[in-house]
């Protein structure tokens, strides 16, 4: 269910500060933000005597121009979709997420495109993306849904085609396969044509994990809720666009299975308030975003995003209690999503008054219950449905279109 909230602004404070994003094609290859403070009386006087600087005048016009709110809109049918094929993106796409390789019969969900209300979102094109991101690095850091967004983007850039000019540079970021592991902690690929690197690092809790006994294979791990992932501290200077996410790993079962123990201030957590899983998650998100905000002035080239949570659609139970999501036909076509503000209040609170932007995908994804892997999952136990991860191509492609529009 979607909820609608009323947002009340303090006009005396809100009208003074305006932030503008200038199209890189009109300024420079760097991502730039111009902050303008309007003082009504002084501006009016300057206007009357015709002495307003051209740059100030341009900025004033841009303030008046409508800003596209990509979180509001509706899903529409577009026969040009999907942007790639699950059959044709085997170089990047994990088979467990390519629903076309499984037993799914209805693929109408692949034909939907997100249409923001009152404006047109810039159309994603692989060559345009490679040119815009030339000599830059884009990193996804988060859980398996962050990995889905990463694989989606790789497929979108290459548009169904295998690429021999893409170099695996995971070793530059320590993304190698540890002994005894099924997969590395992430992947990094460089497109040699424009020297753009796209990478993913697995950090489901967005905090530092430290083995308590490196000699013990069954050691517990300190889950430092007040420390960002060490990967970020080590490689942030090499990243130009960063997308963070976390959420669904914050439950007791995951912590027990991974032998993670909450730590705060370098010691086991003793606060009963933080011990609550929801509060622990929010505490961690706030700390990581706060740290990242402190780093933005040191890395002026960096554009950082926190992606709001991806919704689950389990009905009549959870993943381990018979929950299902059997709908396969889109029911959201033409239905508008018009709520004010994000449904992910924790994300909104974390990024408020920081240099980290919100990539809000929650409400538009909430109405796409037919897009999950559902009962055709090839890796789950009998009777267990996947109503968390998405079929690819699918909804995460739209997350990347919105990201592309914002960078």
UniProtKB/TrEMBL annotation:
<dbReference type="GO" id="GO:0010411">
    <property type="term" value="P:xyloglucan metabolic process"/>
</dbReference>
<keyword id="KW-0472">Membrane</keyword>
<keyword id="KW-0735">Signal-anchor</keyword>
<dbReference type="GO" id="GO:0005794">
    <property type="term" value="C:Golgi apparatus"/>
</dbReference>
<dbReference type="Pfam" id="PF13839">
    <property type="entry name" value="PC-Esterase"/>
</dbReference>
<dbReference type="InterPro" id="IPR025846">
    <property type="entry name" value="TBL_N"/>
</dbReference>
<protein>
    <recommendedName>
        <fullName>Protein trichome birefringence-like 16</fullName>
    </recommendedName>
</protein>
<dbReference type="GO" id="GO:0016020">
    <property type="term" value="C:membrane"/>
</dbReference>
<dbReference type="InterPro" id="IPR026057">
    <property type="entry name" value="TBL_C"/>
</dbReference>
<dbReference type="Pfam" id="PF14416">
    <property type="entry name" value="PMR5N"/>
</dbReference>
<dbReference type="GO" id="GO:0009834">
    <property type="term" value="P:plant-type secondary cell wall biogenesis"/>
</dbReference>
<feature type="domain" description="Trichome birefringence-like C-terminal">
    <location>
        <begin position="123"/>
        <end position="405"/>
    </location>
</feature>
<dbReference type="GO" id="GO:0016407">
    <property type="term" value="F:acetyltransferase activity"/>
</dbReference>
<keyword id="KW-1133">Transmembrane helix</keyword>
<feature type="domain" description="Trichome birefringence-like N-terminal">
    <location>
        <begin position="68"/>
        <end position="120"/>
    </location>
</feature>
<dbReference type="GO" id="GO:0045492">
    <property type="term" value="P:xylan biosynthetic process"/>
</dbReference>
<comment type="similarity">
    <text>Belongs to the PC-esterase family. TBL subfamily.</text>
</comment>
<keyword id="KW-0812">Transmembrane</keyword>
């Amino acid at each position: 269910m979607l909820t609608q909230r009323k947002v009340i602004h303090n006009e005396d404070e809100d009208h003074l500060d305006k932030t503008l994003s200038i199209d890189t094609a009109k300024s420079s290859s760097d991502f730039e933000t111009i902050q303008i403070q309007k003082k009504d009386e002084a501006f009016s006087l300057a206007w009357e005597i015709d002495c307003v600087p051209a740059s100030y005048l341009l900025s004033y016009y841009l303030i008046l121009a409508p800003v596209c709110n990509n979180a509001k809109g509706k899903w529409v049918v577009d026969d040009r979709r999907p942007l790639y094929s699950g059959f044709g993106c085997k170089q990047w796409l994990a088979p467990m997420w390519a629903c076309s390789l499984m037993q799914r019969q209805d693929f109408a969900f692949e034909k939907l495109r997100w249409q923001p209300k009152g404006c047109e979102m810039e159309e994603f094109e692989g060559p345009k993306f490679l040119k815009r991101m030339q000599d830059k690095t884009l990193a996804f850091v988060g859980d398996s849904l962050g990995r889905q967004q990463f694989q989606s983007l790789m497929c979108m850039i290459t548009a169904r085609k295998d690429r021999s000019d893409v170099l695996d540079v995971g070793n530059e970021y320590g993304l190698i396969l540890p002994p005894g592991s099924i997969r590395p902690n992430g992947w990094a690929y460089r497109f040699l044509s424009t020297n753009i690197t796209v990478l993913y690092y697995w950090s489901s809790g967005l905090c530092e994990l430290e083995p308590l006994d490196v000699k013990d294979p069954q050691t517990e791990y300190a889950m430092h809720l007040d420390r960002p992932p060490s990967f970020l501290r080590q490689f942030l200077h090499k990243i130009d666009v960063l997308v963070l996410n976390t959420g669904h790993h914050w439950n007791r079962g995951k912590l027990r299975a991974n032998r993670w123990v909450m730590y705060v201030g370098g010691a086991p957590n003793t606060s009963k308030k933080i011990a609550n899983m929801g509060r622990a998650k929010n505490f961690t998100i706030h700390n990581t975003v706060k740290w990242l905000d402190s780093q933005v002035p040191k890395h002026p080239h960096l554009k950082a995003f926190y992606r709001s949570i991806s919704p689950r659609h389990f009905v009549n139970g959870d993943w381990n209690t018979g929950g299902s999501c059997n709908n396969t036909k889109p029911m959201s076509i033409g239905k508008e999503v018009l709520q004010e503000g994000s449904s992910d209040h924790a994300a909104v609170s974390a990024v408020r008054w920081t240099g980290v932007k919100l990539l809000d995908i929650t409400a538009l994804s909430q109405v796409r219950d037919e897009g999950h892997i559902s009962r055709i999952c090839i890796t789950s136990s009998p009777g267990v449905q996947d109503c968390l991860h998405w079929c690819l191509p699918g909804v995460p492609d739209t997350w990347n279109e919105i990201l592309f529009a914002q960078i």
